[in-house]
Description:
With 421 residues, the chain is α/β, with parallel strands linked by helices. It has helices at 6-16, 29-35, 53-62, 66-71, 80-92, 106-114, 126-140, 151-157, 159-167, 199-211, 227-234, 257-266, 275-288, 295-305, 328-341, 358-368, 401-413; strands spanning 25-26, 39-43, 73-76, 96-101, 118-122, 143-144, 190-194, 216-222, 269-273, 317-321, 345-353, 373-379, 389-397, 419-420. Strand 7 (190-194), helix 10 (199-211) and strand 8 form a beta-alpha-beta unit.
Amino acid sequence: MGLVGVDEVVAARAALAGVLRPTGLDAPGFLARATGRPVLLKHEERQRSGSFKLRGAYWRMVGLDPTARAAGVVAASAGNHGQGVAVSASRLGITATVFMPAAAPLPKVQATRRYGATVRLVEGPLADVLAAARDHAGATGATLIEPFDDPAVIAGQGTVGLEIVDGIDTVDASESGSAADHPDPEGEVTVAVPVGGGGLVSGIAVAVRALRPRWRVVGVEAAGAASARAALDAGAPVALPSTETMADGIAVARVGDITYRHLVELVDDVVTVSDDEIARALLLLLERCKTVVEPAGAAALAAVMEGRVGGAPTRPVCAVLSGGNVDPALLGRLVTHGLNASGRFLTTRVALPDRPGALRSLLDVVAALGLNIVDVEHHRSGTDLPVEQVEVRLTLETRDPDHRDAVLRRLEAAGLHPRPA
């Protein structure tokens, strides 16, 4: 099977007219000042169902014949793909069954049900969920809607690329600096795209390569789930033994066979970002753009902020914010993680004599440094300290990494010997 053609992406856009919400581009000035180049954001977190996934699912289902539509569709998903399938099926009058992990966040399960799908929870990893979905398809005749490794799904996701191409010359760059900073669509532009299974980056690359040959497309993976990078290095898709990342939306152990061919032929590079880098980008979007994205949705911006996407250093880069379906119960922990990663929180342990007044003396030092205490824990048991000592775990507000390091030096100079938490 060859690569998806741009004609199919264009056809998908026509079918999706009236279905999609507009998800525009903007160019926040603070990002340009921080990176030294114009930075555009493509806001797929604002899309119907909360991510880009609706695009590919809908176009795949539009192509079903009447018999297949009557038999329904089935999908396996930990969240975004299932919601995209549910919305698409509802709009097309097709019955949808979505298999999800029993441990999937409750808001994602509830949203998939509200969009009209029947949800079946499966114990075990996502591989077991997919196996259950395939069994259901075999038993009922329902069509399995693949999350990424399907030409129609790739074409649907490619409509994001068409919108970037069409919209870049209309972006209001007045906040990004001088008029010379305005994105020039005829010159080089780098498009940074989160990569899980590879459907989104493949589709965007199809559109960009056909319409803007001078542009670059760079995939961005979580370092703990770098299956695309592994496939490119090995010369074929390989399965990672495990994935370990907060970015569950791109925690895919193996890229698809079809998406791999698109990666090889059309994508300029695939880079990785750490969870700390993702958390910093997520926090930046929340604080400065008032934009809530899930960790996977912040991966591309993380790579931009770390200077990892390449291209001419003063030429524009567009980061695709792929989704915003973050569990509210998780959001607070993600923000805390981002604050720690950005040097805005210092969490440390201090051993003190187990006698009255010792804790007061520590807090007096903290007060003298002008620090706000976020949390304090006093432990007399369950530590590796001598019996005559206790441990105090402190979380303090700091301004940045330099301030955090200065505080640690001051605590050490005071004889408190702070240790990593």
